[in-house]
Amino acid sequence: MRVATAELRDLLDGAEFAFADLYTITLAAAGTALRLTSADIDITYDGKTWVPAMITGGRLRMVRGLEVDTATFTWIPDRSLSVNGVPMQQAILRGLLDRAQVERHRAFFSHWGAPVAGTVLLFQGLVSDIQLNGAMASLSVDSLLSLLNTEVPGEIYQASCRHLFGGEACGVDPTPWVVQGAANDGCTPGRVAWGNRAIDGAFDGWRIMVTSGRNAGVSRTVKSSLSGALQLSGPLPFALSEGDSFALMPGCDKTLAACSGYRNTARFGGMPFVPVPETGT
C-alpha cells in the first residue's frame, strides 16, 4: 500500500504535476547517507536535500506474499563524491557500499522549482551486488524481505565453532598476534612482496589489512604465504607500492585444535565429537 499525504492526493487529482525520483544510499559501516535525485536541480524536502546525479532505477513490480524482489540501479558517480575522503569509485572497489541501504522515493510538485507536495516510497532494500564497468556502477538491491532468509534455529549442532573469531562469544583478543609489515618492490594486485622470512605457510588463512597507500582500508585473506611473499585469495584494487604498510591479523579455521592454540578451548563453540552422519540400510 502506498501512503500519501492529503496535499499530495489533491495534487495528483489535478491535471498537471511534475515528479522526480529521490535516492538515499545509507552506508552500512560509516552510516553516511548519500542523497541523489534524477532531477537536474536540487530537491529539498523535510529538511534534507537531494543533489542531481546520473542515476536511474529499474522497473518495479508489486506482488502479494513474501517474495523477495530485486531492483537494479544504474549510477555514474560524480568525481566530486567521496566516502571518508575516498573517491566514490575506489570506495565501491573497497566494498564500502556493500550491504548499504537504498531507498527510492518519488517526489511530486506542481511545477519544476515548486515546493515538494509529498513523496511516495517506491522501493527499499539492501545492496547485494555491485558491478563496476568503467565509470558506471550497477547496483543490485534486494528488498528488506531478504532479511527473513535466516537459518532457524540460529545455532545448530556442528563440529566447527559457530562463533565469530574475536567476537564477544569467542573472547579472543587477536591484537597480540597482529604482525605489521611493509611492501617491497615487485607487488601485483594478487601478490604482496614482503621481506619477512617466516616459514612457508606461517600466515596461511590470515587476513591482511592495508593501512596506507591507494589500497588503504582494503582487506583480503592470505591464500598462501611463502618466504618473502603473500599470495592473496582475491586481487587488491591496485598493486601495493614499495613502502605501503599493512597489518596481518590471525584467522581461525574453527577447529578445536585452532582454539587450543589460542588457549581458548573453554569457549569453543563447536561440538567436535558429534557422530559422523551415516546411511543405514
Question: Could you characterize what this model shows?
Answer:
The chain has helices at 6-13, 88-93, 256-261; strands at residues 18-26, 33-37, 43-45, 48-52, 54-57, 70-76, 82-83, 86-87, 101-109, 118-133, 136-143, 179-182, 191-193, 207-210, 219-226, 229-232, 245-249. By secondary structure, it is mainly beta. It is globular. The mean pLDDT is 85.
List the helices and strands and how they pair.
Layout: H1 6-13, E1 18-26, E2 33-37, E3 43-45, E4 48-52, E5 54-57, E6 70-76, E7 82-83, E8 86-87, H2 88-93, E9 101-109, E10 118-133, E11 136-143, E12 179-182, E13 191-193, E14 207-210, E15 219-226, E16 229-232, E17 245-249, H3 256-261
Parallel strand pairs: 2-4
Antiparallel strand pairs: 1-2, 1-9, 3-4, 5-6, 6-11, 7-8, 9-10, 10-11, 12-17, 13-16, 14-15, 14-17, 15-16
